[in-house]
Amino acid sequence: MKAQILSGLNDPAQLEHLYRSNKSSFKREFIELYPEIKDTSLAAFWKERLSFSGEEINWGSAKEIFLVLLGIIITGLTAKLPAFFGIDEDFFYPRNSGFIVFPVLTAYFAWKNNLSKGKSIVIALAMFAGLLYINSLPDFPESDTLILACIHLLIFLWFLLSIAFVGEEEDTNVGRLSFLKFNGDLVVLSALICIAGGIVTAVTIGLFQLIGLNIEEFYFQNIVVFGLPAVPVIASFLNSTNPQLVGKVSPVIARLFSPVVLVMLVIYLGAMAFSGKDPYSDREFLLIFNILLIGVMALIFFSVAETSGKSKSKPEIYILVLLSLVTVVVNGIALSAILFRIAEWGITPNRLAVLGANVLILVNLLLVSFQLLKAASKNSQLHQVGNIIARYLPVYFVWAILVTFLFPLIFGIN
User: Fold this and answer.
1) In this structure, is residue 299 part of a structural domain?
2) Residues 6+ away with beta carbon under 8 Å from 298
């Protein structure tokens, strides 16, 4: 839609038509595009118009509300399938947790973005194939290969969701960056909903205890289990129809936490040298080290996605440069640790999966760091950094396919 908005700057009637055909999508795309077109009088007019209408919560059309409510019911019923049909929870949830929410979100954005029938069918078939495959694997809960397949299946489903979110956007890089931004906003909004839900839960259980009724077990088994999967659906709907809700909060969080995380990482690396703990001999420490790496990398990517195409002060760019370089060091330590463990004890599915992921992350971080250095030295925008991130996302998708579908065939489930 961004390309249509740009061409519509010379045709006010076309902008009005775009706005009326899909108000929420138009508003989201226009707000992201505005820094590039703010010098035009028509863009300034639309900015004021959209800002004024944004003061109130937009609840979407009646049809959209119906679809969201239907999605909430579907996610809740899916989460309750083990209780309804006596399915072993230890078998169902590790394999199917992604299928509780991702199909509903994917269908919602496919509908909202008028995804072509061909793409919709491909996504549906890919999800169905994943569902059949993961549930056909032998039941060995302690199998490393099975655990890896279940984890990487979530990445597989997440990327399919991104295809529906990007829709028919001509510039897929812009669409993927918008998707990353959506994920950050979704986390913030979901956290707020969970906090509110937690307060309501505590108050409700407490009130019933005052009159001598203990509803805690019933409440968690029926209300929480049914309602918790609805949180990302509700958050996605609110974020899609009201991008202004957390549109200003997420960039602030990214700006606040980037320097804090940078300082924390430097201190942590220094403390690690004196603690006697290292990822070379401690498997759990290596796992935590990699989780830390993924979290910091996500913060870098989210910060870039929030500001791509916009001007950013030199201190902010330098913080991102330093954070990316320190993260490269962290990744190098993790990569050397896993290579050491492979040399000492041989290849296992876990070690190969971690090795592959670390190599992919290292390449991605080096590319991002190089572009950030160029942005800092030339005082340019982060557009090229965003493009690097967007173009690299399919690489993780391919790796997720390999681990999910090929590792069990190569290493077996035992």
Assistant:
1) yes
2) none
Least reliable range by pLDDT among 102-116, 137-151, 174-188, 377-391: 377-391
From 184, 210, 241, the end of a domain falls on 241
* 65 in any annotated domain: no
**Does 289 lie in the same domain as 157?**
no
Would you say residue 64 lies in a domain?
no
Last residue of a domain, one of 206, 222, 241: 241
Task: Indicate whether 404 and 276 sit together in one domain.
Answer: yes
Which amino acid is present at 161? L
Q: Into how many domains does the chain fold?
A: 3
| 91/308: higher pLDDT | 91
Quick: pLDDT tens for 171-225.
Answer: 788 788 889 888 988 988 999 999 999 999 999 999 999 999 999 999 998 899 9
Contacts (Cβ under 8 Å, ≥6 apart) of 307: 251, 254, 316, 382
Within a domain: 90: yes
Over residues 110-125, the pLDDT tens digits come to: 999 889 999 999 999 9
- The mean pLDDT value of the chain amounts to 86
Whether residue 276 is found in the same domain as residue 335: yes
The string of pLDDT tens digits covering residues 367-378 is 988 888 887 877
Supply the pTM of this predicted model. 0.84
Same domain, residue pair 177 and 205: yes
What per-residue confidence (pLDDT) applies to 247? 67
Residue type, 392: Y
Answer for the pair 356, 399: CB distance below 8 angstroms, yes or no. Answer: yes
pLDDT for residue 413: 86
* Boundaries of domain holding 336: 249-411
Q: Are residues 219 and 153 in the same domain?
A: yes
